[in-house]
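DM between two lab members

TW: hey, do you still have the Rab3 GTPase-activating protein catalytic subunit entry open?
JB: yeah, one sec
JB: this one, 118 aa:
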Amino acid sequence: MFKEHNLFYVTTALTFEIETLRVLLNFTDPWVSEYNEVAVHLVMALAHLSSAAAKHLMILDETNQLVEELLKLADEEQPKAGMDAIKAAEQVLDQIIKKLPTGAFNMPSDLRNPSLSN
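TW: and the structure you got?
JB:
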């Protein structure tokens, strides 16, 4: 089952990481230095998930620069770098969506109905 839905899982994870970073950056006030490490790890996760999805879809040419940008942003000052990382990751997500066949974001049936997995 995993191989069949691998891109679905990677893309879903990328989306959740984008939103997790967005929540951290937008709703953490005041920003304290302890959040820097969390933001760095989230940006790194965005870079690696973006790279994995790009390799799977063979869109490395379209996304290499964005993945490199994400890796650089992990080393820059947070929270501003995190906001830039969200923009870059959303561009990767746009590239992924352009390459997906119709219906690719339908939830796999075995996830909708756990009784089908047995």
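TW: got it. The chain has a mean pLDDT of 83. The chain has one domain: 6-100.
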